[in-house]
Design a protein that fits this description.
It is a single chain. By secondary structure, the protein is α/β, with parallel strands linked by helices. It folds into two domains: 109 residues, Urease, subunit C, domain 1, CATH 2.30.40; 290 residues, Metal-dependent hydrolases (TIM Barrel, Alpha-Beta Barrel), CATH 3.20.20. It is built from 15 helices and 17 strands. The strands form two sheets. Strands 1, 2, 3, 4, 5, 14, 15, 16 and 17 form a nine-stranded mixed beta sheet that branches. An eight-stranded parallel beta sheet has the order 6-7-8-9-10-11-12-13. Strand 15 and strand 16 form a beta hairpin. The longest helix has 18 residues. The two termini are 26 Å apart. The mean pLDDT is 98. 2H-imidazol-4-ylacetic acid binds next to helix 3.
């Protein structure tokens, strides 16, 4: 019996296989059976892999990578924030816009007033964009409802989309994204509300796998963040933290102390925090598109983190304020020029390293026998070209669980 699908003649296959030092195979093939990778190797596919029912994908002149994993997005939300552009251009800082009731709080108003169908249609359209650009697994946070009903509604929308759409959605509860207007001046009251009312429901109904906190000046302090995350852990949620995005608050140190799965942003992370993350095995999720979009003139020190032994992932941070794009390929270019990462490092950061950030490294993130057959075929002779020729979509095909779900750059499911 042959394989279900075989990719042949691939100019380059970036396997991202850790055991094989993330090898790149020139002129190779990949065989898939029952949605799982069967074989990947250099040369021609052995004859016994192919019978008259096998789908053949000719990848001459093309590059194959694992399906991209976007490990940090704010997927479900209402509205958009392009009207804040003039303020941004005048130099009003992000945290200032938030203090004025804009920013996240503006999206909270839009999200609360949107009905379920609207939220779902918008997030569905984002998932389609992600898939078209090569993303096969995405982490999605709540955090634009803040009240019980809207948070639950957004998490339920994410769950429905996970069931209905080819892209896998890993859900995170992020009620601790801002202090809602009804709790203004009463952060502790809001924390108690989350811990007593929302988090037990979210955990009991398995609406999220992770909990995340925006640990930032004017939002949640490190002590408040620690408390919220610890309460989440007691309920069985895994931990993520928005750490040291703008003001250094020792968020990286906190992530290490709590052995969080990931610490995200990290622009202002201290050297001690980076060291501590390396020791604790916390994955750094860097978000260079956000650095660009906030006009910070500063990127996370990915090179320093890698040298210190931290596993570095890269994600979009897709959200309506600080990085309104679903396109991980665009982020590759920001990562290269902003963080001085090589194209090979960038592909790993969006595949196997990102798989660690969502605790899926045993199932996805590399092209090796036994892993899920999530792969992208790029119209590109090598990985460098994808990063170099920027602002366009290089995707030819996306394969999800062994099925071709994007064909000739178009949705096919
Ligand atoms: O909507 O501004 N940083 N959360 C923390 C965001 C950015 C998203 C937003
Ligand atoms: Zn974020």
């Amino acid at each position: 019996m042959g394989a279900d699908l075989v990719i042949i003649n691939a100019s380059n296959i970036a396997t991202c296989d850790e055991q094989k030092n993330y090898e790149i195979i020139a002129n190779g093939y990949v065989a898939v059976k029952d949605g799982i990778i069967l074989e990947v190797n250099a040369g021609n596919a052995p004859r016994e892999l192919i019978d008259n029912r096998t789908t053949i994908v000719d990848a001459s002149g093309k590059t194959v990578t694992p399906g991209l994993i976007d490990a940090h997005t704010h997927l479900v939300h209402g509205g958009s924030r392009e009207r804040e552009l003039p303020l941004k251009l005048k130099g009003v800082p992000y945290l200032e816009i938030l203090k004025m009731g804009g920013g996240i709080l503006s999206t909270v108003r839009h999200t609360r007033s949107a009905d379920r169908a609207e939220l779902k249609a918008k997030a569905l359209s984002s998932l389609n964009q992600m898939l078209l650009h090569g993303t096969t697994t995405v982490e999605g946070k709540s955090g634009y409802g803040l009240d019980f009903d809207t948070e639950v509604k957004c998490l339920e929308v994410a769950r429905e989309l996970n069931e209905q759409h080819p892209v896998d959605v890993v859900s995170t509860y992020m009620g601790a994204h801002a202090i809602p207007e009804e709790f203004k001046g009463n952060t502790q009251g809001y924390i108690d509300f989350m811990v007593q009312k929302v988090m037990p429901y979210v955990a009991e109904h398995k609406l999220a796998e992770y909990i995340d906190v925006f640990c930032e000046e004017g939002v949640f302090t490190p002590d408040e963040s620690r408390y919220i995350l610890q309460e989440g852990r007691k309920l069985g949620l895994k931990l993520k933290i928005h750490a040291d995005e703008i003001i250094p608050l020792s968020g990286a140190e906190l992530a290490a102390e709590l052995k969080a799965a990931s610490a995200d942003h990290l622009l202002a992370a201290s050297d001690e925090g980076i060291e501590a993350m390396a020791k604790a095995g916390v994955t750094a999720v860097t978000l260079p598109g956000t650095s660009f979009y906030l006009m910070l003139g500063k990127y996370a020190q990915a090179r320093k983190m890698m040298d210190a032994g931290v596993r570095v992932a890269i994600a979009t941070d897709y959200n309506p304020g600080t990085c309104p794009t679903e396109n991980l390929q665009a982020i590759m270019t920001f990562a290269c020029f902003g963080m001085k990462m090589t194209p090979e490092e960038i592909i790993r950061a969006m595949t196997i390293n990102a798989a660690y950030a969502v605790d899926r490294n045993k199932e996805i993130g590399s092209i090796e026998p036994g892993k899920k057959a999530d792969m992208v075929v790029f119209n590109s002779p090598n990985v460098e070209f994808i990063v170099y020729h920027f602002g366009i979509n290089h995707v030819d095909k996306v394969i999800k669980n062994g099925k071709i779900v994007v064909q000739d750059g178009k949705l096919n499911f």
